[in-house]
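dumping this here so i dont lose it
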């Protein structure tokens, strides 16, 4: 197996995993990708968006 074949296979596996996570999240009623992104953000970033609310 050539190195390029392994890279293509890894990208295909990664994209399939992302699709599976999105489908499971859609069935459960959650957007798991957005929840994961929100979880990595600081709780209180401060600044004007927090003061406006």
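and the seq i came up w/
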């Amino acid at each position: 197996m050539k190195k390029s074949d392994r890279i293509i296979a890894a990208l295909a596996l990664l994209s399939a995993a992302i699709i599976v996570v999105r489908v499971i999240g859609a069935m459960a009623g959650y957007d798991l990708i957005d929840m994961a992104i929100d979880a990595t953000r600081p709780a209180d970033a401060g600044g004007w968006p927090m003061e406006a609310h």
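DSSP finds three helices and no strands in the chain.
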